[in-house]
């Protein structure tokens, strides 16, 4: 607290990312990182750029990377915006496209960074409750009255549940007057992308990251796809904020990643296979597991407190994520899909915990 | 222009960085990059991080890099904030510390990104004219009435002229109630840093970059030094915007750079030596050259239009920067100090241009 602070700073409650502790031998299933190394092509491309040229600024337009992303999605470069992770892309989207008089709608259980961005930029929001089964009820976004925009992750976080493309389209068709942001951080693990709808719906912005399916959380690259008018708004805000958010190494590494679709396909298959096995293992131990299309599962045990289980797993050097709020999800654990060995270690630890602790301890 | 844009987007006039053309054989003296390769230690540190660990998020607090910066300056880590280039650090400073009811003061001839940030965040500003000799008149910042903050580069850009430390301190002593940001992007080439005043003046924020003296424009690392209260405000805004603005490679490279002070000292000496020679060469050709403490000079010829000279140099594959506005500096060229060979090539090109063109052509 300081008299030197801008007024808004006093009101901020920053987003708290999953912890990144430096503890050896940790099984880290708390921040939805990929358990496998990125493509060798990425490492080679970065090595090739680790040179005297680092003295030079990167391309402020990121033209080559944007062209590669456009090719990957069958779009044009002017339909692509890139940023320092999808979190930065989201921040610019809030400022550039979601700041209107009517409130922004988002699911009540969703990415907890959304209300943080909204507070930073003075945007009114309205939570729309998920259904009892934790699915997004599209009808609620059609009957909500005027809105200044809609944002939701697909698959949703932290539930992992996907909205079918037809439902996304129904939401778009019913909201022609406001921007609809579909945050597809986790789309590569089985959900349907809305990128195919971009030419039809000029109010659609799809946001992606290379942090999850591409195993590049450490490189900080995200992007948005949409009508060139939406992309221009993002570019105006970005160029009023920081001309060069992606360094030369990130630009090169990201472009190389997109060129290795074989790696992507193999990694996705490994993770979805492990997801099936982990889900079955959790269910066999009495957990309710929401149907996940992401690289994590969201699960609760009817007889065990989520906070307590998370703490007990931590004592055994296994990190998972648990959200104290809203109350409705407090007993869930969000568990990243690790390697088969990591998933087995988690299940073995749970066996000890669940056997050791009578239901009454809840 | 689009009905989907937030209102502010219509009013933005983004900053335009110096161009980064992909033309072979270009002599690039337009964006104040270092003409020499960064320290080998930087490249080695980046190579060591180019590994499977890129799948993991970076440290969101950048603890190790902040500790290294603190050691370098004899400060504590809680007096250090890091960001994606000093441009991002500046953006967060505008939002976190310079957004008040009274107008922000800055020199009328200064870093042209300042008014862009101000417009993005709805901050009123007041230009304070430089003196006739292009120096900053500290008295004007003492008698300006209430202000919501003060920001200026030291050395100033694009003039290259430095304000002595005693004058910076006089400005601080006379403005105890508002944040004073000293943007020291170019301080390593002969000016005096205000970092030594941080323990005395809780309203002082010093901003630095690794893009210039450290030859790492391509890596995007900047930082701020100040009282922990000011740093906390920056952290709150940053953590409401993007948890991880520095990727794993940038964190490692920046930390290694700060460890090689021998490299820094040698590079600074090479550049200041070339600056002396280039200044003499320009003066011998009739240019007025402002006294520079930066890695560039700001110079005009009494008989030649700045815009025309810049265009003619460009035809000869030599890029320099020229600012059309304000009118008072339109005939100046901002010339980055290159290698001795690049400086010689510039002078040789100017010989042709100045001889070929009679004064009347202006």
Briefly, what is this?
Chain A has 362 residues and is an alpha/beta fold.
CATH superfamily of the largest domain in chain A: Type I PLP-dependent aspartate aminotransferase-like (Major domain)
- What would you report as the Rg of chain A, rounded to the nearest angstrom? 21 Å
What is the fold-level CATH name, i.e. the topology of the largest domain in chain A?
Answer: Aspartate Aminotransferase, domain 2
CATH architecture of the largest domain in chain A: 3-Layer(aba) Sandwich
Number of helices of chain A: 12
Structural class of chain A: alpha/beta
Helix content of chain A: 25-40%
Distance between the termini of chain A: 38 Å
Average pLDDT level of chain A: 95
Strand content of chain A: 5-15%
Into how many domains do the coordinates of chain A divide? 2
SSE run of chain A: HEHHEHEHEHEHEEEHHHEEHEEH
Low-confidence stretches of chain A are none
Q: Order of strands in the sheet with the most strands of chain A?
A: 2-8-7-6-5
CATH class of the largest domain in chain A: Alpha Beta
Largest sheet of chain A: 5 strands, mixed
Overall number of strands of chain A: 12
| Oligomer kind | homodimer
């Amino acid at each position: 607290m300081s008299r030197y602070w801008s007024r808004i700073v006093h009101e901020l409650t920053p987003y708290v990312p999953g912890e990144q502790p430096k503890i050896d031998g940790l099984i880290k299933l708390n921040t939805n990182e990929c358990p496998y190394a990125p493509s060798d092509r990425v490492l080679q491309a970065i090595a090739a750029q680790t040179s005297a040229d680092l003295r030079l600024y990167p391309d402020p337009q990121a033209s080559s990377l944007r062209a590669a992303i456009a090719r990957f999605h069958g779009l044009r470069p002017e339909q692509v915006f890139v940023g320092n992770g999808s979190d930065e892309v989201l921040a610019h989207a809030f400022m550039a496209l979601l700041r209107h008089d009517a409130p922004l709608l988002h699911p009540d259980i969703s990415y907890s960074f959304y209300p943080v961005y909204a507070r930073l930029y003075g945007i009114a929001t309205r939570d729309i409750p998920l259904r009892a089964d934790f699915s997004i009820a599209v009808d609620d976004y059609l009957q909500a009255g005027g809105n200044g925009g809609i944002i939701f992750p697909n698959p949703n976080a932290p539930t992992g549940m996907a909205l079918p493309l037809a439902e996304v389209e129904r939401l778009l068709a019913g909201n022609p007057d406001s921007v609809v942001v579909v945050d597809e951080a986790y789309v590569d693990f089985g959900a349907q992308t809305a990128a195919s709808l971009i030419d039809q719906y000029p109010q659609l912005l799809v946001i992606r990251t290379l942090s999850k399916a591409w195993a590049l959380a450490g490189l900080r690259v995200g992007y948005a796809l949409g009508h060139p008018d939406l992309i221009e708004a993002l570019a105006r805000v970005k160029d009023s904020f920081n001309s060069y958010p992606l360094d030369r190494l990130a630009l090169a590494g990201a472009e190389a990643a997109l060129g290795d679709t074989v790696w992507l396909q193999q990694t996705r298959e490994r993770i979805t296979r492990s997801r099936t096995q982990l889900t079955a293992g959790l269910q066999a131990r009495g957990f309710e597991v929401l149907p996940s299309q992401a690289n994590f599962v969201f699960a609760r045990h009817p007889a065990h407190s989520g906070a307590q289980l998370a703490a007990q797993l931590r004592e055994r050097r296994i990190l998972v994520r648990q959200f104290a709020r809203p109350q409705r999800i407090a007993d869930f654990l969000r568990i990243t899909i690790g390697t088969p060995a990591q998933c087995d270690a988690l299940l073995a630890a749970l066996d000890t915990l669940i056997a050791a602790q009578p239901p009454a301890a809840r």
